[in-house]
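Researcher: I'm preparing a figure for a lab meeting and need a structural model of a single chain. I don't have an experimental structure, so a prediction will have to do for now. The sequence is pasted below. Please return the structure as tokens so I can convert it later.
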Amino acid sequence: MHDTNGITLPIKAGDLQFNSIEDSIEAFRRGEFIVVLDSQDRENEGDLIIAAEDITTEKMAFMIRYTRYLTIYFLNPLPFEILKADVLTLSGIICTPISSSQTTTLSLPQMVAQNADPNRTAYTLSIDASHPSITTGISAHDRALTCRTLAFSSTTSESFRRPGHVFPLRARDGGVSERSGHTEAAVDFCRLSGKAMAGVICELVEDGEEVPGRAERRDGGMMRRDGCLKFGKRWGLKVCTIEDLVNYLGKHEGGMNGISGTG
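Model: Understood. Here is the structure written out token by token.
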């Protein structure tokens, strides 16, 4: 955090507290990012979440700056021995949770017939918006427009080209009360805040440290509980948990406990 003179001040442990679901819904309704953490017994990771209708080029650039690292394995065709594993800082993986009915309406089938993801994150075919301003599809402008297009009421399956650089996710119909994942949390926050049922999410990572004289960074792992709370404090964002969202829905809507999965 910073004082009025721009001097960086330490964040005290007592300042690191989760926000209420009510405050998080209000921030989401205002078009702000929120940070949502899942259980420490699952991924124990935080996602940056915003409604698709609210994502601008500038906000997309912010998301890309703080999104996940990818581990890429290079394999021998046979017998599938791992030759080496490199961790690459890529231009952030942006996912867009939508309802199951939207995946049908927009002709977005699952990416694979048999999902081997441990958390069964339901990736559909990737997309770019079919718009004259879209170039390669990877820029902050292009991905923001693709995400916003998912929120337009006039959008059809012809509004997208496939494959692309944005990854829609099919949410369970029961939301976090059925599956306690970030996919469902994003769609639930859209519903609770009166937004179009399309969110934008990315997994937060630590910056890590530069390796002097080399094009590498070390210790750039996933951002966990305290890191997410510090991140929220730094940028003035509400930080909440899926567990609290499940409890909120149980209290206000009679939802059952979340039962499976993350992501």
